[in-house]
Amino acid sequence: MSKADTQYLTIVENILKNGYYADNRTGIPTYKLPHQVMQFDLAEEFPILTTKFVAFKTAVKELLWIWQLQSNNVHDLQAMNCHVWDEWMRPDGTIGKAYGYQIRKYKQTDTLLHTLKTDPQNRRMIVSLWNIEDLPDMALEPCAYQTLWDVNDGRLNCLLIQRSGDMGLGVPFNMTQYAVLVHLIAQVTGLTPGLFTHVINNAHIYENHVEALQTQLARKALAPDAPTLEINKNIKDFYAFTPEDIQLIHYKHLGKLPMEVAV
Ligand SMILES: Nc1nc(=O)c2c([nH]1)NC[C@@H]1CN(c3ccc(C(=O)N[C@@H](CCC(=O)O)C(=O)O)cc3)CN21
Ligand SMILES: O=c1ccn([C@H]2C[C@H](O)[C@@H](COP(=O)(O)O)O2)c(=O)[nH]1
Question: CB-side exposure of 132: number of CA atoms within 13 Å?
């Protein structure tokens, strides 16, 4: 079993056992717990679940859409054969001033890369998608909305803050895609991947995901070891990475667990 499975399933188990049952805007109630934390040393193991199949390539494409393409246009994501944002697409084809829009608006990827290269002991390396002024014009207010970056002895550390975490669908994507991001940014800044800490303010399980997550919990004993991440080492420019440059080697898992997304 991967360390990702252990930490993720501990949270899932705790929510199912002790979570507070409450309504929310989607109409599908959730069980929820506050302030759940996972922490991975990326030098030791790449965090991805093995107790179910995580659509790794899809998660990587969504990440590149936000951080590299810096797009809010759902058609750009669909062009990569990724459809996880289809339900939130507005008639103009975008998700409004959300996600990639906020990265581009303030050149946040460029600034982070530049600071990591020129002033790695800077204590102000923050990328934030939470822009109060623009919130009313977003199709969805960003969930994984902030990262804080830090360097110790050549190791790149990242703290991800997520205000709202869908444990069944969003979180398995988020934990893995942000781990990929740390690897990508480390490679192009001459650093090595260090600690990745993922804080979730409202960690919830939708009522209609309970059965699938119970199935996943029951699979624990059979879980395979974690795969390894392999990135094309020749790439030194963050904007040159393609999904093909980012490969999972020997990803063994216990199969898909379909869940419906609450819109
Ligand atoms: N309720 C909700 N949960 C989320 O996780 C979420 C939202 N809304 N809204 C915006 C994005 C969209 N996200 C999504 C949407 C769908 C999948 C999903 O269906 N995942 C499937 C595989 C999809 C594929 O293979 O392409 C899965 O089994 O993980 C994942 C994340 C994450 N976000
Ligand atoms: O990257 C993401 C994006 C979204 N989510 C989930 C978290 C919630 O279940 C919904 C958003 O609903 P709000 O009412 O705006 O909190 O989407 C996620 O887990 N990860």
Answer: 0
Which residue is it, tokens 């002024």? Answer: 133
* Residue extents of the structural domains in the chain: 3-249
Which pTM was predicted? 0.98
What tens digit of pLDDT does each residue of 176-225 get?
999 999 999 999 999 999 999 999 999 999 999 999 999 999 999 999 99
How far is 188 from 112, CA to CA, in rounded Å? 11
Q: Which of 64, 127, 143, 184 is catalytic?
A: 143
- Which residue positions form the known binding site? 25, 123-124, 163-166, 174, 204-206, 262
**ipTM value of the model?**
0.98
Task: Specify the residue for token string 């790695």.
Answer: 120
Torsion of CA 102, 106, 110, 111, to 10 degrees: -120
pLDDT per position as a tens digit, 63-102? 999 999 999 999 999 999 999 999 999 999 999 999 999 9
Nearest alpha-carbon partner for 139 in 172, 100, 181 = 100
Distance CA 151, CA 229 (A): 21
For 104-133, b where at least 16 C-beta lie within 10 A, e where not — what string?
beeebbeebbebbeeebeeeebebebebee
Contact 138, 175 (CB under 8 A): no
Q: Is the CB of 174 inside a 6 Å radius of any atom of ligand 2?
A: yes
Cα-Cα-Cα-Cα torsion 3, 116, 144, 75, nearest 10 degrees, comes to -110
The CATH fold assigned to 3-249 is: Thymidylate Synthase; Chain A (3.30.572)
Among the bound ligands, the one closest to the CA of 205? 2
